[in-house]
Structure formats: structure tokens, C-alpha cells
Design brief:
The chain is an alpha/beta fold. The chain has helices at about 45-60, 75-85, 135-150, 170-180, 200-210, 230-245, and strands at about 40, 60-70, 90-95, 155, 190, 255-260, 265-275.
């Protein structure tokens, strides 16, 4: 039996949850009640969404995986998503939304004229990576598939570290969208977001516990042949592995900057030294140039 072949006798029974979902308000967390054990996961092939997929499988859900091609610079993530799904035997669809890519300009991820900012996510420039309304588009597409498949829920891997930069990862957004999703059809679908209060470190640690194939996941926004090791999502990935005390199997660009952890526990990027311990070429320091 494949992981997604989970017999479901009644609402929530695959999760060991009693009662009817209509008796409870929509809420986030792993204890959310759903109509069936089937869910559609928005799946990019990244660390967060892959861990979410494995987490839901571990909880007994029948998982359908939805990836979306919206013209993103880092389209290589879709190849990684397919490689992760293949040995699991799950249903995996890649929705082609490239025709709307011109409507999503102004972001470094959809507009070649906008550079991918380097450094920590805390930097103001990281807002350049925001794709207009991305999560609503992805979750709306996932909801349509969930309705067709009579799935009880859709799930996405927004986490605590996303909130400051991405408005469509905020709790207020998810609460509002969850309400709209529940009203979108006579077949009610709920929004799962069990990582909302989790940090990237928490997710990395959970990935290690669940046996997620970390070497297959893709995070980098540059979309090169290997992770650049310098963009916001690469820095966040590197820090998460270090904090979770996990071996990082990721292949980074040899000119990615070194990370130093201060006495206060905060990581600082050393733009004068490479990840391999060598001296950073002057033209590549302080985020200068394209690291990929």
C-alpha cells in the first residue's frame, strides 16, 4: 500500500479526531478537523512544503501534491518537486499559470529586470522577492482541485519566519482566506497551516525526524545549477540546518559567504570570506555581483 492509500471511514477518523468539522471554528494547527483524510498540498519542492507533505503523510492524510509554474525565476524547484514525489507514488500535478506571469511583475522572482537581493530576510530589500498575491493564487488553484477531488482540506507551509516579509503568510491573511475557501463551494474545504507558529529551525528539525530527503529540496531564489548560498532563502536555510544541528547536504556556490554566529546567538554574514574558508574576491563582497 502506498502512503497515500489511506482508508477513511468517516470525517476526521484517519486523524483519530472525533466530531463533525461544522461544530468547530476554522483554526490552524495539526489538530484541525477535516471532512476526509484527503488534502491538497501546495508543493514547491522546498524545505518547508516538503516537510509539510511528509508531516501530513505521517499523520495519515491522503496527499495530493500541487506545484505551480507561474513563471518564477527559480523554476528549477519544479524539477526537484517531481524528484521528491516520484518514489512516494503520490498524485502530483503541475499547474501551468505562466500566461499570467506578466501580471506578476515587479518581483525579483517574476521580473528579470529586478535583481534577487542578497543577505538576511530582515533587510528591507527582501520585499523585492514578494510575488503579488502568490499564496492566494496558489491556494485558490489548490482549492479548485480539492473541490473536484472531494478533499476535505488544502494545506500550505507558511511559518513564523515568513510573516515580516510576506503579507500573504500573515495570520490575518490566512484567517480571511480560510473563511473564503470554506464558502467557495457546497463541498466545504478547510485551510491547514500547521507550521504557522513554527520557526525555520523547527521545520528543519522536524524534517530530520521525518526522514525528508533534504538533499532533493530546493530553496534558492536565483534558480542556478546550485544554491547560491547568499540570497535570503539560502541564508535562512543554512541557519536552520545549523540551529537544528543537522548535516546540510546542500551544494552551495563556492563563493557563497561565510556565516558567523555571535555570542548573542545571532548569525552574521561575513562577506569577506567564502563558505569554503577562502578570501572572497573584492567584487563579490557585501553582496556585490551575482553569486549564482
Amino acid at each position: 500500500m502506498l502512503w497515500n492509500e489511506v482508508p477513511v471511514d468517516g470525517p476526521g477518523e484517519a486523524l483519530g479526531l472525533p466530531g463533525s468539522p461544522r461544530e468547530h471554528p476554522i483554526r490552524h494547527g495539526a489538530d484541525i478537523l477535516v471532512k476526509t483524510g484527503k488534502t491538497v498540498v501546495t508543493f514547491s519542492g522546498g524545505l518547508d512544503s516538503t516537510t509539510l507533505l511528509y508531516y501530513l503523510l505521517d499523520k495519515g492524510y491522503e496527499v495530493l501534491a500541487l506545484s505551480v509554474d507561474y513563471g518564477q525565476r527559480h523554476r528549477v524547484e519544479l524539477d526537484h518537486a517531481a524528484r521528491i514525489i516520484e518514489p512516494l507514488g503520490l498524485r502530483h500535478e503541475i499547474a501551468d499559470l505562466t500566461s499570467i506571469a506578466n501580471l506578476l511583475g515587479g518581483s525579483s522572482q517574476t521580473d528579470d529586470s529586478v535583481e534577487v537581493p542578497l543577505g538576511h530576510y530582515a533587510a528591507e530589500t527582501m520585499k523585492q522577492t514578494v510575488v503579488p498575491n502568490r499564496n492566494m493564487i496558489l491556494l485558490s488553484t489548490a482549492t479548485a482541485w480539492a473541490i473536484r477531488e472531494k478533499a476535505g482540506s488544502v494545506a500550505y507551509a507558511a511559518h513564523a519566519g515568513d510573516h515580516a516579509i510576506y503579507p500573504d503568510c500573515r495570520n490575518e491573511f490566512a484567517e480571511a482566506l480560510g473563511g473564503a475557501i470554506a464558502l467557495a463551494d457546497w463541498h466545504e474545504v478547510e485551510l491547514l497551516r500547521p507550521f504557522l507558529d513554527k520557526t525555520k529551525e523547527d521545520i528543519a528539525r522536524l524534517a530530520g525526524e521525518l526522514g525528508v530527503p533534504l538533499e532533493l529540496t530546493w530553496s534558492c531564489y536565483q534558480g542556478g545549477r546550485r544554491h547560491c548560498g547568499a540570497c535570503g532563502t539560502c541564508i535562512e536555510r543554512r541557519e536552520a540546518f545549523l540551529l537544528a544541528k543537522l548535516s546540510d547536504p546542500t551544494e552551495y556556490d563556492s563563493l557563497a559567504p561565510a556565516l558567523r554566529r555571535g555570542e548573542d546567538g545571532v548569525f552574521v554574514i561575513d562577506w569577506k570570506e567564502t563558505i569554503e574558508g577562502g578570501e572572497m574576491p573584492p567584487g563579490r563582497r557585501v553582496g556585490a555581483g551575482d553569486p549564482a
